[in-house]
Design goal:
31% strand, Rossmann fold, alpha/beta, 3-stranded antiparallel sheet
Length: 214
């Protein structure tokens, strides 16, 4: 198979030295890419610049990404090419920075224009957070014939909540499978499709199952 695996976090810059990002090491996606490579598949790993996992990257092609828009552009660049499967495990930042404000002497908010490095001497800074585009919702349009597996990491609620979120992703984004995990799900993973939900206790079992379904 020709595979793309995304892994690690995107970030959104506040200025040239500060950023907003997600907690993600890139470990799971990198290990999945290594597993698929060892099994003889052609793998492109797209890995976040901020990924901290120091393990070996064995994929034939490894490219890094920075912001959400950068990852979006790198994925879209593959549209029109032969891609059998996309494993979208990257932890895309949910928010980017929008408008910025400071308070004047009367306590009213006034627009603030950021510099390359925002000084703290100006006092409190008020920043609007705006949602980033959902890359996974665009994949089907770019890759109409490709199998697409998304990830749903849920922190709040319980296992049932995590599974409902995974099912919703399938419906909203026209993906083929969704891997549910995170604190809400608990130990292990669940590979969710339109027809079934399958609990997988370890990453190794997840990787083997993902390969075998294609």
């Amino acid at each position: 198979m020709n595979c793309i695996v995304t892994a690690g976090p995107t970030f959104e810059p506040l200025d040239d030295v500060r950023r907003l990002t997600n907690f993600s090491t890139g470990r799971l996606g990198t290990q999945l890419a290594n597993f698929l490579t060892a099994r003889g598949h052609r793998v492109t790993l797209l890995i976040g610049e901020s990924a901290t996992y120091a393990g070996e990257r064995q994929s034939q092609t490894v490219k890094s990404f920075s912001t959400t828009s950068d990852l979006r552009a790198k994925l879209k660049a593959f549209s029109g090419k032969k891609v059998d499967v996309i494993f979208h495990a990257a932890a895309v930042s949910d928010f980017a920075f929008g408008k910025m404000f400071t308070r004047d002497a009367a306590g009213k908010l006034k627009p603030f224009r950021p510099s390359k490095k925002i000084s703290t001497r100006g006092g409190n800074l008020f920043v609007e957070l705006v949602p980033t585009p959902k890359i996974i919702a665009e994949l089907r349009g770019w890759f109409p014939k490709t199998k697409i597996i998304g990830w749903k990491f849920e922190a709040d609620g319980g296992r049932a909540d995590a599974l409902r979120a995974a099912v919703k992703q399938l419906a909203d984004c026209a993906t083929d499978f969704c891997v549910a995990n995170g604190p809400a799900y608990g130990k292990g993973f669940n590979l969710v499709s339109a027809d079934e939900k399958k609990h997988l206790a370890t990453a190794e079992k997840l990787f083997t199952t993902l390969e075998n379904i294609f």
